[in-house]
Structures are given as structure tokens and as C-alpha cells.
Design goal:
The complex is a heterodimer. Chain A is 47% helix and 15% strand. Chain A is of the alpha+beta class. In chain A, helix 3 packs antiparallel against helix 4. Classes of the chains: A alpha+beta, B mainly alpha. At the A-B interface, helix 4 of A face helix 13 of B.
């Protein structure tokens, strides 16, 4: 299905914020907004759901802690409980202070790295990925709001010009 | 302007009255002779014998009085007698220091906010200034207790006893630093410096409200930066003097930081609690959930910082296990197992799990709840620092301890909220006040 989308260009983040609010108020669905830098509050204005990446990170941290405990318990206590410099290897708890640095680091390691990988997977980022920006200027000094057209091209164009768009393009686009 | 509600005022008087009663009972029930002490230990054993089952493992606590009597004889009895005599004093000292350190922690936080020119916190400056008003009565009380110790009214500081020093080579070596005169001079300098900064900064802060320019604000900035340098040095020495020297054979290099972390997190917690209280009464209309959120983040972060220092100190000593250092922890783990490890749960696990979620940091009653746990945890922290060296295995959180907590809590509430009535609760002409008013996280 080849559908038409409208690209409205802005050159100021304040104007963009107001435009997003107006477009939302007119009950149009904003497909995407391309920005050269994070615009504070844009996600709220667009009504995007809050991220759950912190929750995944907490879970990964718990996994890391478990890995550290199970690993040290097996190696140092169960498998070969040697006397190393008089450290008490009779039970995990007795020798625990010595394991805490490892427990801490593995917790942080798992929480950080798995969260980053989660982020890459969820936002579909990897080396050699084809860049998806509609206009090179969106990485420098322009903002683009992308809205799908459903037989309301003129009305939408008027609304967007009204919000202070500096340029409006209609794109015939294949399904991505 | 804030008006001190009558209910709170009466509440603080009741706390003080009940507290004085508890303290008095503590002093009256302390043994006045060795025979009395022996009798007390004997009845204590009958009453609590079963609950002290653990003690049998160590073979020293509950069983010791009878078993060791024949071996050590008089010297052991005298030892127990001194410890029991110390109990009401140590209870008083722990509570006095705990509430004083809250005010001092708030003062450090306040100075940092000024020196860092934080944009979110100026709305809370008057709350902090109200809490630091307690420095004066709290500091005087701690100082009086120290003077009474020097006058041999108690045995909190063993190095003040010239008899003991005469037979102790290690204490003789430290007597250049640990001698009563120098000790009191240092304490006076610390308290004088802290109280001077507090009073002067408060004056500049009030004056800024009516000023035509920002000169008071700039002067306050300079004094705050200077105070922080003074504070770091004196706080460290204070922790050696007032806390570490109850165990004069033991030393630890990061002790000053450790005490600092404890007072800092308690101070921030009290700021958050007082702010939430005042806000709930409608006296801080411009304070929003983002301010509470920031305070809760500090409570969370500094709790972890405290744990980091607690663990660093513990683990380094546990790992190397050098006899002269490790006795400190041996005594605590043998006789104070529950408070010693319980405080780690209260000061670390609770705040970490309760305040990790960003939404929870904005729920006011949740912050209060966590704050109560943190404060109780840090009381036990001070308890753990003082008690093992002063009363040893004779500790108990009973009437003298609770009485002292109630008395100082009452005094703290009375003094802080009285100070809050003396100035408008929101600064007027602070250059950052608009930013603070619109602070949003």
C-alpha cells in the first residue's frame, strides 16, 4: 500500500512543541518526529508511553547478583573449599565480605550491559543499519514532524502552516 | 509566616517530660556500688537467661558473671560495675549526639547547596535554617556532657582516667592528643565555628530578603565555601574525639567520612520529613513533588554512600584481621549481632528497595515512612559506635535509652519549629528563588 505522508519542517524546538500540542489537539496521529537533539518534554506532548527500560535493568541486576552468588558459592565453597590465607570457606555467609566486590560488580555489569543491548534491540540499532532519516537537515538544525494523510491533505497543510512550519513536503511512500 | 501549632508544641513538651522521666529512672537505677552491680547482673541473668542462648556460644556474655567471678574476682566485678554505671550516661550521650548530628548534617547540606548555587533548593533554605537552629542547644548539651566526662562524672572516655593512662603504654603515647584540656579546647573550637557559620549565614539570608542588591547572597556564598573547608577538617577531628576515642586503642582512617555519611543522610532525611510536614499543613505552597523527589534521591544516594563506607571499613578490617584493629568488630558481632547487622538492613536494604522507584520518591507518605526507618537505623548506628566501648555486653534498648531519645526528640521538635516561626518560610530575594519555585523534574 502506497500511502502519502506529510513532512512539516520546523527550525525551533519551542515552535515544534507548540505544533505538536496543536496537532494532538486537532486529533491527528503523529507518526514520528525527527529531532537533531532531545527536546525536553516532547514525549509527554506526543503522549508516548513511559519507557520500561529501568525495570528491565533492575531485573538484569538481580540476575547478575544471582550469577555472582551462585558462581562464588560453587567455586569457593562447594567445589574446592581450600584454606586460602585463613579465610573461612565453610559456608558462603562466613566468607561473604570477600565476595561482595564481585557481587557488586557483576550486578552493575549485568544491569548496564543487558540494558544497553535491550535498548539497541528495542530501537533497532546496529552497525551497518541503513539510516532512517527523511532529510539530512534533521541531524543538524531542523525538526520534522511526520503525519500520515487520509484524504485530508489541504486541511492538514493549513493546520501545519498555521503552527509555524517553515516547509511542508508531501511524500509518496512505500510501506516500510 | 509559620505558626507553631499548639498540638505540636504540647506534643514536644510531653516528649520532653516523658524523656526526662526515663533519663531520671536510668540514673536512679544505675548501681552505686560493686555489690549492687553484682546483684543486678545476677537477676538479669535469671530474667533473660533463655533469650541469651547465643551467649553460650561465645561463652562470655550471660554466663560470664558467675563463671569468671572466681578467676578475675574483684577486677571483673569492678569492670561490670563501671559498665552498668555508664549505661544511663551512654544512653544520654548517644541520643544527644544523634540529634546534634542531624542538625550538623543539615548545616553541611545547606552550605553545599549555597556553595553549589543549586537552583532547586532555595525554597527549602528556611526549613534547613530552622533545623540547624538546634545546633546551639544541641551543641551545648553535647559539650556539657563532654565537660562532665572530663570532670569524672562518668567513665565514657577511658583515657580521661589518669589511673588507667598510668598503666597503659598505648594511651600514654596518645596523650599528646587525647588529654582533657586539649579535648575541650578542640570541642569548643568545633562548636564555635559551626555555630558561628550557622548564625552568620542565617543573618545574611534574612538580610537578603530586604536587600536592594545581591551582596548578602554573594557574601553568604563565600562563607559557605569557607565553612565547608572548615567543616571537613573539624568534622573528621570531631569524629575521632567524640566517638572514636571511646575506644582509644582502636583507630580507623575513614572513620570521619563514615560519621559524616551517617549525619548527612540523617540530616537530609529530616529536611525531607519537615518539608513534607510543613507542606501538608499548607505552609510551603510552592514546594512541589519534584523538590521531595530530589530530597528522596539524596536520601537514596547517601544511604548507599553510608553503606559503602560502612562496608569498606568493615571489610578491610575483617579481611586483614589484624588483632589490634579487629577487636572492634569482634566485640560488636559477639554482643551486638542484631543491632550491628540490623542497621545495615535498615540503612541500606530499606532505602534502596523503597526509594529505587522514581514514582515512589514523589509519594510523600512513602518518603516519611522510609525516613523513619533511616533515622532509626542511624540512631542504631551511633548506638553501635558508642555502646560496645562504654557498656559492652550490658547493653539494652530500655527505659534510659528510649527516655533519652524521647527527650531529645521533644527538644529538637520544639526548638526547630520555634525557629521556623521567626522568619518567612520562603526566601524573598534569593537570586535562584524563581528557578526553585518552577523547579520541575
Amino acid at each position: 500500500m502506497a500511502s502519502k505522508t506529510i513532512h512539516a519542517y520546523y527550525n525551533d524546538d519551542d515552535v515544534l512543541m507548540h505544533a505538536v500540542k496543536k496537532v494532538k489537539a486537532a486529533r491527528h496521529h503523529i507518526e514520528e518526529v525527527y529531532c537533531p537533539f532531545p527536546v525536553h518534554g516532547l514525549d509527554k506532548a506526543m503522549g508516548l508511553a513511559p519507557t520500561r527500560i529501568a525495570i528491565t535493568s533492575f531485573i538484569y541486576g538481580c540476575i547478575g547478583l544471582t550469577v555472582a552468588i551462585v558462581m562464588m558459592n560453587f567455586i569457593m565453597i562447594k567445589d574446592w573449599p581450600q584454606d586460602i590465607g585463613g579465610k573461612p570457606s565453610f559456608s558462603y555467609i562466613e566468607n561473604m565480605p570477600a565476595f561482595v566486590p564481585i557481587m557488586f560488580e557483576l550486578t552493575v555489569f549485568f544491569a548496564a550491559h543487558l540494558m544497553v543491548i535491550t535498548f539497541y534491540l528495542r530501537s533497532r540499532l546496529w552497525p551497518f543499519k541503513k539510516a532512517e532519516n527523511p532529510d539530512v537537515r534533521t541531524t543538524d538544525d531542523h525538526f520534522v514532524m511526520e503525519i500520515e494523510i487520509h484524504e485530508n491533505e489541504n486541511e492538514l497543510r493549513d493546520l501545519l502552516i498555521d503552527t509555524g512550519a517553515v516547509e511542508i513536503n508531501i511524500i509518496e511512500k512505500d510501506t516500510h | 509566616m509559620y505558626t507553631f501549632s499548639n498540638r505540636l508544641k504540647i506534643g514536644s513538651f510531653i516528649l520532653m517530660a516523658v524523656g526526662v522521666l526515663g533519663i531520671a529512672i536510668g540514673f536512679l537505677s544505675a548501681p552505686s556500688s560493686i555489690e549492687e552491680a553484682k546483684a543486678m547482673v545476677a537477676t538479669h541473668e535469671e530474667g533473660h537467661g533463655s533469650s541469651h542462648a547465643e551467649a553460650e556460644d561465645h561463652g562470655n556474655a550471660a554466663m560470664s558473671a558467675d563463671a569468671h567471678n572466681e578467676e578475675h574476682g574483684a577486677s571483673h566485678d569492678e569492670h561490670v560495675f563501671h559498665r552498668l554505671q555508664n549505661k544511663p550516661w551512654a544512653a544520654l550521650y548517644v541520643a544527644a549526639f544523634f540529634f546534634f548530628m542531624i542538625a550538623l548534617g543539615v548545616l553541611a547540606f545547606y552550605a553545599i547547596q549555597r556553595a553549589a548555587q543549586a537552583g532547586w533548593s532555595p525554597l527549602l533554605f528556611r526549613v534547613m535554617e530552622g533545623i540547624t537552629a538546634y545546633l546551639v542547644p544541641g551543641g551545648i548539651i553535647v559539650f556539657v556532657i563532654l565537660v562532665l566526662s572530663v570532670l569524672h562524672m562518668n567513665h565514657l572516655f577511658i583515657w580521661m582516667d589518669s589511673e588507667v593512662v598510668a598503666h597503659d603504654h598505648l594511651l600514654q603515647g596518645k596523650s599528646g592528643y587525647l588529654n582533657p584540656t586539649f579535648f575541650l579546647i578542640r570541642a569548643a573550637i568545633f562548636l564555635g565555628g559551626w555555630i558561628f557559620y550557622r548564625e552568620y549565614s542565617r543573618k545574611l539570608s534574612i538580610r537578603q530578603d530586604e536587600a536592594k542588591d545581591d551582596s548578602n547572597f554573594k557574601l553568604n556564598f563565600k562563607w559557605s565555601a569557607g565553612f565547608l573547608v572548615f567543616y571537613l577538617v573539624t568534622e573528621s577531628m570531631m569524629s575521632w574525639d567524640w566517638i572514636m576515642s571511646v575506644e582509644p586503642h582502636w583507630f580507623s582512617t575513614l572513620f570521619g567520612w563514615y560519621v559524616f555519611a551517617s549525619m548527612f543522610v540523617s540530616g537530609i532525611t529530616v529536611i525531607a520529613m519537615v518539608t513534607v510536614y510543613l507542606k501538608s499543613k499548607g505552609f510551603l505552597p510552592d514546594v512541589n513533588d519534584s523538590h521531595i523527589h530530589d530530597l528522596a534521591k539524596f536520601m537514596f544516594g547517601i544511604s548507599i554512600f553510608w553503606t559503602y563506607l560502612w562496608f569498606s571499613q568493615f571489610m578491610l578490617i575483617w579481611y586483614s584481621n589484624i588483632p589490634e584493629e579487629v577487636t572492634y568488630y569482634v566485640a560488636r558481632i559477639a554482643d551486638y549481632r542484631l543491632p550491628f547487622f540490623g542497621m545495615v538492613a535498615m540503612n541500606f536494604l530499606f532505602p534502596v528497595l523503597l526509594l529505587m522507584n522514581s514514582d515512589y520518591k514523589r509519594i510523600n507518605w512513602f518518603v516519611i515512612l522510609t525516613g523513619i526507618v533511616i533515622l532509626a537505623g542511624h540512631y542504631i548506628d551511633v548506638f553501635n559506635m558508642i555502646m560496645p566501648s562504654t557498656v559492652g555486653d550490658q547493653w539494652f534498648i530500655g527505659i534510659p535509652e528510649l527516655g533519652a531519645i524521647l527527650f531529645f526528640a521533644g527538644l529538637f521538635i520544639f526548638w526547630v519549629f520555634r525557629a521556623l516561626t521567626t522568619a518567612p518560610l520562603q526566601p524573598k530575594r534569593n537570586p535562584f528563588i524563581e528557578e526553585s519555585r518552577h523547579f520541575h523534574y
